[in-house]
Amino acid sequence: MRIINQEKSVAKQLLQIPIIVAALGYFVDVYDLLLFSIVRIPSLQAIGISGSRLLEDGAYLMNMQMIGMLIGGIFWGIIGDKKGRLSVLFGSILMYSVANFANGFVTNLDQYAILRFIAGIGLAGELGAGITLVAEILPKELRGYGTTMVASVGVLGAILAYFVADLFDWKIAFMIGGGLGMALLLMRVSVFESGMFKHTQEQSVSRGDFFYLFKTWKTFVKYARCIIIGLPIWFVIGILVTFSPEFGKALNIEAPVMAGKAVMFCYIGLSLGDFSSGFLSQAIRSRKKVVLIFITLTTTAIVSYLFLPKTSLFSFYSACLFLGFSIGYWALFVTIAAEQFGTNLRNTVTTTVPNFVRGSVNIITPAFLLLKPNVGIVNAAFMVGGTTILVALLALKGLKETFGKDLDYVE
């Protein structure tokens, strides 16, 4: 009877309204974030772009979105530590919902770029604030389950994005994303603020000081390591999956690869990977060991995607599924960032870290495009991807284990 009551207690804690809403918020966030990758080609063709410009202008729009996320990550991170986690959850979703709805009316590349930039700023706040809130309201023994739940449910938004884009015109797909965000905004009325944040408000301590992260070499290196361990994740999403139609041609796949399906299969794998890595970290009581396992899997998946013989769409999409599962330490990597710093800086760190990883495409994509004419698309991807793996392993080595760490402290 006691075991049953304990299980009910755990389930009750994990199914709190803030956790459910955070998971749904990330679901809508991923829908809107990945929708561009899915509708890149038809939407660009609709505004008169064709040929090689589909890749080049697609990369430009992706970079504009990611620059927005870099700026938004800093902005929303500071706001979350100064004004509260809920202020970010409300403000960010309002911004990206309006931008994505308006994206359905673009008629030229400049309009598209401006709206992807604004949407990027809005999208930057969702995950960090959600993970921070969940990490602070759950007991330390259940923290990993809560953040895993948020990420596992959230990444399924990519699957909805694929089916919506398949059923409707790309313009309608963007408008639906905006509508989902506004509906979620109404649900957030019932969400309560983190007790740890309220406690910090009562203390005479600086909150949301982004530049504190650069004041000492030790603090900066710890912060940088939190970012670097996530670089392979966004290399896979931003290069291998986003430009999957181009890779399909280079790998001599017998039929055209659909970017939407590649994204969908990748994110099905990512959801399964997030679920697996989160529960494995709870089982073996270690974040670092599980991240090491998944970075090793990512290396194997990249080599398989680029070099193992594939002739059918089934084998290509299966490789995308494996890629997604291998990078399924996304929730774990964000959780590690949340656990590295005190309450007065936690939202700043947890919001900026994943967005700096996403924003790394502004370095990764140009490097890939620079190498591509000389060594080919496959070898260029291997060289850039291999570099992200190497630096991630070096960064992971220097991070402290944070499983079970008490988070009720300030810097």
What characteristics describe this protein?
mainly alpha, single chain, Growth Hormone, Chain: A, disordered N terminus, 411 residues
Summarize the SSE layout with pairings.
Layout: H1 2-14, H2 17-46, H3 53-82, H4 85-103, H5 109-123, H6 126-137, H7 143-154, H8 157-167, H9 170-187, H10 195-201, H11 217-228, H12 231-241, H13 244-250, H14 259-284, H15 288-307, H16 313-326, H17 330-340, H18 343-359, H19 361-375, H20 377-398
Helix pairs in contact: 2-3, 2-4, 2-5, 2-6, 2-7, 2-8, 2-9, 2-14, 3-4, 3-5, 3-18, 4-5, 4-6, 4-9, 6-7, 6-17, 6-18, 7-14, 7-17, 8-14, 11-17, 11-18, 11-20, 12-19, 12-20, 14-15, 14-16, 15-16, 15-20, 17-18, 19-20
How would you portray this structure in words?
The protein has a single domain (14-188, 209-398), classed as MFS general substrate transporter like domains (Growth Hormone, Chain: A). The chain contains 20 helices and no strands. It is globular and about 60 Å long. The chain has helices spanning 2-14, 17-46, 53-82, 85-103, 109-123, 126-137, 143-154, 157-167, 170-187, 195-201, 217-228, 231-241, 244-250, 259-284, 288-307, 313-326, 330-340, 343-359, 361-375, 377-398. α2 runs parallel beside α7 (143-154). It is 78% helix and 0% strand. 53% of the residues are buried. The protein is mostly helical and 411 residues long.
CATH superfamily: MFS general substrate transporter like domains
> What distance lies between the first and last C-alpha atoms, to the nearest angstrom?
42 Å
CATH architecture classification name = Up-down Bundle
Helix residue percentage: over 70%
Report the structural category: mainly alpha
Rg computed from alpha carbons, rounded to a whole number of angstroms: 20 Å
What's the number of extended β-strand segments? Answer: 0
For the record, the CATH class is: Mainly Alpha
Q: What is the CATH topology assignment?
A: Growth Hormone, Chain: A
Count of runs of 4 or more consecutive helical residues: 20
Percent strand equals under 5%
Biggest sheet character: none
